[in-house]
Amino acid sequence: QSALTQPASVSGSPGQSITISCTGTNSDVGAYNYVAWYQQRPGKAPKLIIYDVSYRPSGGVSNRFSGSKSGNTASLTISGLRAEDEADYYCSSYTSSSTWVFGGGTKLTVL
Amino acid sequence: EVQLEQSGAEMKKPGESLRISCKASGYSFINYWIGWVRQMPGKGLEWMGIIYPGDSDTRYGPSFQGQVAISADKSITTAYLEWRSLKASDTAMYYCTRGYSASSEFDSWGQGTQVFVSS
């Protein structure tokens, strides 16, 4: 099971929008609408920010975070970038082997 | 409030055994899956496996099958991750997590347990 492919880093200025891609195969991302995104700040545990491709958990995740999917590629978009969004972001997908696989992670820098 | 409280940091030698724990509270332990995620130093997240405490149904990621054992004791709402013989490459942070089903995301995470393996 190979890790999903994410860009190593992205950056943007405050107020801008950025998109992080997550590319898998037709055995994971392309096969199911079970894609999740996690935010991990330095020294902290990851936090769920998007599940089932485009849903935000209740209580505490800003509507500036949104998710989508097309074919074998899922995307996370953060609009109205803020300094507090600087973190590592990981996608994850359910697979045809009844397991989950993570992406390699993307470091977001807010300039 | 859902809480996953993990055991403390461990320093071990290669070849030693280890079991780390994850104490769950604030929800029905037997009705949710508990998962384990590895993060090696400076690296990304890796899905290790999950267990359903209700019936001990357990699944492992391909890289972890046969390398670790996941178990749960529903009488004390605690899950475990165990190694029989540690290697230096097991040095990592390990997170326990919770999911509603085997195909669901992890909606809660423990604080992590740091494991150091060195001679």
Oligomeric description of these chains: heterodimer
Q: What's the tally of helices of chain B?
A: 0
Number of E-type strands of chain B: 11
- What is the N-to-C succession of helices and strands of chain A? EEEEEEEEE
| Content-based structural category of chain B | mainly beta
Overall spatial form of chain A: globular
Q: Work out the helicity level of chain A.
A: under 10%
The greatest interface between two protein chains, and residues involved on each side, is: A-B, 27 and 23 residues
Order of helices and strands of chain B: EEEEEEEEEEE
Low-confidence segments of chain B: none
How far apart are the first and last residues' alpha carbons of chain B, in Å?
A: 40 Å
Describe the structure.
The complex is a heterodimer of chains A (111) and B (119). By secondary structure, chain A is an all-beta fold. Chain A has strands at residues 9-12, 18-23, 35-40, 47-50, 65-70, 73-78, 87-94, 100-102, 106-110. Chain A has no helices and nine strands. The termini of chain B are far apart. In chain B, the strands form two sheets. In chain B, strands 2, 4, 5, 6, 9, 10 and 11 form a seven-stranded mixed sheet that branches. In chain B, strands 1-3-8-7 form a four-stranded antiparallel sheet, with no helix packed on it. Classes of the chains: A mainly beta (111), B mainly beta (119). At the A-B interface, β3, β7 and β8 of A face β5 and β10 of B.
List the topology elements.
The complex is a heterodimer of chains A (111) and B (119).
Chain A lengths: L8 E4 L5 E6 L11 E6 L6 E4 L14 E6 L2 E6 L8 E8 L5 E3 L3 E5 L1
Parallel strand pairs in A: 1-9
Antiparallel strand pairs in A: 2-6, 3-4, 3-7, 5-6, 7-8, 7-9
Chain B lengths: L2 E4 L3 E3 L5 E8 L7 E7 L5 E8 L4 E4 L8 E5 L4 E6 L8 E8 L6 E4 L3 E5 L2
Parallel strand pairs in B: 2-11
Antiparallel strand pairs in B: 1-3, 3-8, 4-5, 4-9, 5-6, 7-8, 9-10, 9-11
